[in-house]
TrEMBL record:
The modification 4-aspartylphosphate is found at D54. It holds the Pfam family Response_reg. GO terms for molecular function: ATP binding; DNA binding. Residues 3-119 form the Response regulatory domain. Keywords: ATP-binding, DNA-binding, Nucleotide-binding, Phosphoprotein. This is DNA-binding transcriptional response regulator, NtrC family, contains REC, AAA-type ATPase, and a Fis-type DNA-binding domains. Transmembrane segments: none annotated. Residues 141-370 form the Sigma-54 factor interaction domain. The lineage of its organism: Bacteria, Pseudomonadati, Bacteroidota, Flavobacteriia, Flavobacteriales. GO terms for biological process: phosphorelay signal transduction system; regulation of DNA-templated transcription. It comes from the Bacteria. It comes from Ulvibacter litoralis.
Length: 387
């Protein structure tokens, strides 16, 4: 059940909006407020999936309602209702955090499409918020080696800017972690961070995943759906393994970066987006460009700031810190007492060839904690951490 609040001082307009939304979808629970003050009181008490708010109202106008609502609930999704003379103000409200605006008298198709898109985005943002809470606990950048210190310094400089960041490095080194740190330390940290694993999505579906689709665009498109770029509006989109993206999808991503607009599959309507793009790959993109597999113009759009994450073999001095971090984390996950590692066990692990990098180390630590003694010994490492 989607909860929608309509804040509108004209009773006739309110009735029209309620009628349209109620008839469109019986899962919409629509509440009315006759002015801005009444609307804010309801927002304080309830969590609404969407608020439709008029701009010109007595007591408290729509801009004041938007600003007050965003202070109360920064994640709130609001669509402004503008009269003919309010268009400049309506556009300005989007800079203040409004999702979109519709004009009076409301056009049926425009209204319903805007409501569907806003609710789709709200659903994705809620999922992302839950993920983000887990991420903030699960992702930490562990290490004080020179290589990691340089990355931390670069993140401190780059994160507060709007510069696009391109992260390279072998699989399992922590490229995703770097992307999360950039977002969390940026001015967009209160907005969503949407992740897309380009290698995990079939090439025929990647465009729909990134840009959304309209009902009937293809066989399984049973309803309109917002894409990841729309979901990331006001925040960050992380395009992981972008080297595996198809050339047609690359062309559309390039357009989105150039024009800050996307088009859903099956639609010719432009949708404005305001996202910061962070991308990553384990491939040599210059080689991919030479072979015709990756667009050079897209590479230069993405690679404003380059961050190279080193392999674990190149930062062995961080392994003791990583072992300590993972033993504590695994103990919390398993609900058991934290084990310790002997100095010889740690030294032996530092000498291993970690082809799988941090991901492999984490798996080996968990295996040793489960199978090793109360204190993980050198013999435990030789027995259970064999390569």
């Amino acid at each position: 059940m989607s909860k929608i609040l309509i804040i509108e001082d004209e009773a006739a307009i309110r009735r029209v909006l309620v009628k349209i939304l109620s008839e469109e979808n019986d899962s919409y629970e629509v509440t009315e407020a006759e002015d801005g003050l009444a609307g804010i009181e309801l927002i304080k008490k309830e969590d609404y999936d969407l608020v439709l708010c008029d701009i010109k109202m007595p007591k408290m106008d729509g801009v004041e309602v938007l600003e007050a609502a965003k202070k109360l609930k920064p994640e709130i999704t609001m669509v402004m209702i503008s009269g003919h003379g309010d268009l400049d103000t309506a556009v300005n409200t989007m800079r203040l955090g409004a999702f979109d605006y519709i004009s009076k008298p409301p056009d049926l198709n425009r209204l319903l499409n805007t409501v569907r898109i806003a609710l789709d985005r709200k659903e994705l943002v809620v999922e992302n918020t839950l993920l983000k809470k887990k991420v903030s606990k699960n992702y930490q950048m562990i290490g004080d080696s020179e290589a990691i210190s340089q990355i931390k310094d670069m993140i401190e400089k780059v994160a507060p800017t709007e510069a696009r960041v391109f992260i390279t490095g072998p699989n399992g080194t922590g490229k995703e972690l770097v992307a999360h740190w950039i977002h969390q330390k940026s001015d967009r940290s209160k907005g969503p961070m949407i992740e897309v694993n380009c290698a995990a999505i079939p090439s025929e579906l990647i465009e729909s995943e990134l840009f959304g689709h309209v009902k009937g665009a293809f066989t399984s498109a049973v309803k309109d759906r917002a894409g990841k770029f729309e979901a990331a509006n006001g925040g960050t989109i992380f395009l992981d393994e972008i080297g595996d993206m198809s050339l047609p999808a690359q062309a559309k991503v390039l357009r989105a970066l150039q024009e800050n607009k996307v088009q859903r599959v099956g639609s010719d309507k432009d949708i404005k987006v305001n996202v910061r793009v962070v991308a990553a790959t384990n491939k040599d993109l210059k080689k991919e460009i030479a072979e015709g597999n990756f667009r050079e113009d897209l590479y230069h759009r993405l690679a404003v700031i380059l961050i190279k994450v080193p392999a674990l073999n190149d930062r062995r001095e961080d392994i003791p810190l990583l072992i300590n971090y993972f033993t504590k984390k695994i103990a919390e996950e398993h609900g058991t007492a934290q084990k310790t590692f002997s100095e010889k066990a740690v030294k032996l692990l530092q000498e291993y060839d970690w082809t799988g990098n941090i991901r492999e180390l984490r798996n080996v630590i968990e295996r040793l904690i489960i199978l090793g003694g109360a204190t993980v010994s050198e013999e435990d490492v030789k027995s259970f951490a064999s390569k």
